[in-house]
Amino acid sequence: MKIGMSHGAGGEIMQDLISDMILGNIKNKKVNGGVGLEDLDDGATIPIGENEIVISTDSHTIDPLFFPGGDIGRIAMAGTVNDVSVMGARPLAIANAMIISEGFSGEELERIIQSMDEVCQETGVAIVTGDTKVMENDKLDKMIICTTGIGIASKGAITPDSGLEVGDKIILSGSVGDHGISLMSYREGFGFETDLKSDVAPVWDIVQTALNIGGVNAMKDPTRGGIANALNEMTSKSGLGMYLDEEKIPVKREVHAASEMLGIDPFEVANEGKVIMSVKPEKADEMVAAIRKTKYGGGAQIIGEVTDDKHVILETSMGGKRILEAPIADPVPRVC
């Protein structure tokens, strides 16, 4: 087998690589009974006394490094904060490693570091340690950032992505496809007449608001593979299904138009500042109202509910139904 771009783009091909080659060759996959590698959640946990330490690691190869709404520094910090947050843990610290190409602009590096610091100041997270390497300019495409995030939660308070319960309402914190479509439009020079920007943002405020209300059974941030991949991961792990109202899923006009032109399903496109939550039905309306008051949750919607059907079913605007399947891979490569 040869590794291809699809192996790192979310969806079924990447999941097969992880399950067959990576997990199949690692024996120790968890610590003290916590959430571990084989659970394939957004992070792992290490139980210590009355708390659980949450740890999540990520690498960032986005192209271009600067894009409408952010840059590689912002996405590296926000993405790591988000992976820790959707586990139900308060993010505390990040370890940061940068591999930089020889000849890279010092001014651009400083802009990237400043973006990283802005996200950390907004969320109260500290960059506590790191590493910097430089490679020959013909061996690396400009820059790679690798991050590891640390968070903390009370023991037993972790929110896995597999915790769906029949009857739960599904909350989506805002519009989908903004990141991938804005990035592709900018990168490929399609010239869409739009001010569309990436949604890259830390979601801890949204998550904390929801946790304070209570009743959150599962969470996930829909990055590579979009909401189609995230929703199918959640249902597959839970052995349940979902029934969703397609008209309730927010898609911006610009994203819809660009997706139509390019033949892309916006539900399969990466997001970088959204959360999917499965919550107890009696808490759903209160939670949506509270999330809409947060900085990044103004477009929150209840988009459906959990069923025992074992499929993700969309009710379309025409009144029909279709199965929303997990994508083979994200149609927009190198989005994070």
Structure description:
This protein has 336 residues and is an alpha+beta fold. The protein has two domains: 43-154, 60s Ribosomal Protein L30, Chain: A, CATH 3.30.1330.10; 169-323, PurM-like C-terminal domain (Phosphoribosyl-aminoimidazole Synthetase, Chain A, domain 2, Alpha-Beta Complex). Helices cover 29% and strands 25% of the residues. The chain has eight helices and 14 strands. The protein has helices spanning 11-22, 72-85, 106-123, 178-188, 204-213, 226-238, 253-262, 281-291, and strands spanning 44-48, 51-60, 66-67, 70-71, 90-101, 126-135, 143-154, 169-172, 216-220, 241-245, 276-279, 301-307, 312-315, 321-323. The strands form three sheets. It has a seven-stranded mixed β-sheet with strand order 9-11-8-12-10-13-14. β13 (312-315) and β14 (321-323) form a beta hairpin. α2 (72-85) runs parallel beside α3 (106-123) and α5 packs antiparallel against α8 (281-291). The longest helix has 18 residues, at 106-123. It is globular and about 55 Å long.
